[in-house]
TrEMBL record:
SUPFAM superfamilies linked to this entry: FAD-binding/transporter-associated domain-like (SSF56176), FAD-linked oxidases, C-terminal domain (SSF55103)
Key word Ribonucleoprotein present: no
PANTHER family listed in its UniProt record: BLL6224 PROTEIN, D-2-HYDROXYGLUTARATE DEHYDROGENASE, MITOCHONDRIAL
Pfam families reported in the protein's UniProt record: FAD-oxidase_C, FAD_binding_4
Family per similarity comment: Belongs to the FAD-binding oxidoreductase/transferase type 4 family.
Keyword vocabulary terms for this entry: FAD, Flavoprotein
Gene3D superfamilies in UniProt: 3.30.465.10, 3.30.70.2190, 3.30.70.2740, Uridine Diphospho-n-acetylenolpyruvylglucosamine Reductase, domain 2, Vanillyl-alcohol Oxidase, Chain A, domain 4
Residues spanning the signal sequence: none
Name of the protein in its database record: FAD-binding oxidoreductase
Domain FAD-binding PCMH-type stretches: 35-216
Taxonomic source organism: Pseudomonas typographi
């Protein structure tokens, strides 16, 4: 063993949990194999104290640190660069539920917990942890917090930042901030919690969090609705919010082409309507604290009003838990359906609800003018303005030829997002994939403030360098 850093890491963690970087294997690449890196060492600490000790050793040996959870992110934020300077830190062994406090409606969990594990721990205590997304069976809490994950219940409960009360964080110096407070009011200075959430491992390493819990709904009602335009969809959302109030927990948008693609790629799927006669559809869910019959009656009443106002042309209500599950499967299979058809260009964007229709219409016109025949697969969380605006290759064009135009095509999409007052990243983060796009869409003041924060909390650019924001003249 010739590397003194690896020798010190083995002395700290043992040979089983401190290995040469090559031992990381597939973890050295991102989920979609777009980015590939190297690591000086690969470590799996079991406690916050060990994480802090690893960071201190890296500081002593002029190494940087890249932290990784489930490696399910889409922006390659957890992939080291190819310099081989980084120690890749997996938090997979830090997977304990430390406490469930039903009196305070909080749960404290370590960052390596799989999201589904956190959900089940809450359910076991008769509570709900509402963060829910497609990768919940493999993504980790630390990654959810590092990217400020959203998912399907943001409309009612907010994203990861809104669901978190306290954090435990290892700083760039290897200190530990013990901030696991289960307080809903704590006005004692700068909100460090919100600074670390969404920072993608560039400001500190989140090792545990205290999360908000909610009562488990007694019943749910689920429905698909069809409508003629996005303007009608936005008006329907306002109508649903007024009619359901806080009971409205899901409002998921899918274009007709998306539903057709899911049915094609998953032959056992059952569409909510015999024919897809409208260009747009939405999946609505109501979480209710009364009995199921009351939830269904409320759904029927609100949707009847939408029909009378001409906001929707048809509706299909789930009549059983199995039907509700089948409806959600249509939404949850969307990403996999695209993958089965072939790689496409994914854009995770957010827009003011009032600008969504104009954005979709104008962007489609520009894309067809410059890239004739491209196919649009638009779906997402309409309730919070988050669209997954995905572009597939024209019929007959190879996927490779289509993806070669990624930067030119995405420039059209992102420029239009910006022109309509939106954001080029809604819930996936920036990582390294969108890092160089930020200067085009953020002001010099914003970028300057971000760089000052990074340099203040990580003056040697030791934590996840090269991600989120580019720093000039920074060396380890």
């Amino acid at each position: 063993m010739t590397d003194p850093l690896l020798h010190a890491l083995v002395a700290l963690l043992g040979e089983r949990y401190a290995e040469p970087g090559a031992a990381a294997g597939a973890r050295l690449s991102d989920k979609h194999q777009r980015y590939h890196g190297k690591a000086r060492a690969f470590v799996r600490p079991a406690s916050t104290e060990q994480v802090a000790a690893v960071v201190r050793l890296c500081a002593e040996h002029a190494a940087c640190v890249v932290v990784q959870g489930g490696n399910t992110g889409l922006m390659a934020a957890a992939t080291p660069d190819d310099s081989g300077r980084a120690v890749l830190v997996s938090l997979e062994r830090m997977n304990a539920i430390r406490e469930v406090d039903t009196a305070n409606d909080t749960l404290t969990a370590e960052a390596g917990c799989i999201l589904r594990q956190v959900q089940l721990a809450a359910e076991g205590a008769g509570r709900l942890f509402p963060l829910s997304l497609g990768a919940e069976g493999s993504c980790t809490l630390g990654g959810n917090l590092g990217t400020n994950a959203g998912g399907t219940a943001v409309l009612r409960y907010g994203n990861a930042r809104e669901l978190t009360l306290g954090l435990e964080v290892v700083t760039a110096e290897g200190e530990i901030w013990h901030g696991l407070r289960g307080l809903r009011k704590d006005n004692t200075g700068y909100d460090l919690r919100d600074l670390y959430i969404g920072s993608e491992g560039t400001l500190g390493i989140i090792t545990a969090a205290t999360l908000k819990l909610y009562p488990l709904p007694a019943s749910r009602a689920t429905a698909y609705v069809a409508f003629a335009s996005l303007a009608d969809g936005v008006a329907l959302l306002a109508h649903a919010r007024a009619g359901f109030s806080a009971a409205l927990t899901g409002f998921e948008l899918m274009a007709a082409d998306c539903l057709a693609l899911v049915a094609e790629q998953f032959p056992g799927s059952v569409l909510p309507f015999d024919r897809l006669t409208q260009p747009w559809y939405a999946l609505l869910e109501v979480s209710y604290h009364g009995d199921h019959a009351d939830a269904v009656a409320l759904m029927e009443r609100v949707l009847e009003g939408a029909l009378e106002q001409g906001l929707i042309t048809d509706a299909s209500l789930a009549q059983s838990v199995a039907q509700s599950h089948a409806m959600w499967q249509l939404r949850e299979h969307m990403s996999e359906a695209q993958a089965r058809e072939g790689r496409n260009m994914k854009h995770d964007i957010s827009l003011p609800l009032s600008r969504i229709e104009a954005f979709v219409a104008s962007t489609a016109v520009q894309l067809q003018a410059q890239f004739p025949g491209v196919r649009h697969y638009t779906f997402g969380h309409l309730g919070d303005g988050n669209l997954h605006y995905n572009i597939a290759s024209p019929r007959g064009m190879s996927v490779a030829a289509h993806m070669a135009r990624y930067h030119a095509l995405s420039r059209v999409v992102h420029d239009n997002v910006h022109a309509h007052g939106g954001s080029i990243s809604a819930e996936h983060g920036i990582g390294q994939r969108k890092r160089d796009e930020l200067p085009r869409y953020k002001s010099t003041v914003e970028l300057g403030l971000m760089r000052r924060i990074k340099r203040a909390l990580d003056p040697h650019n030791r934590l996840n360098p090269g991600k989120v924001i580019a720093l000039e003249n920074d060396t380890l």
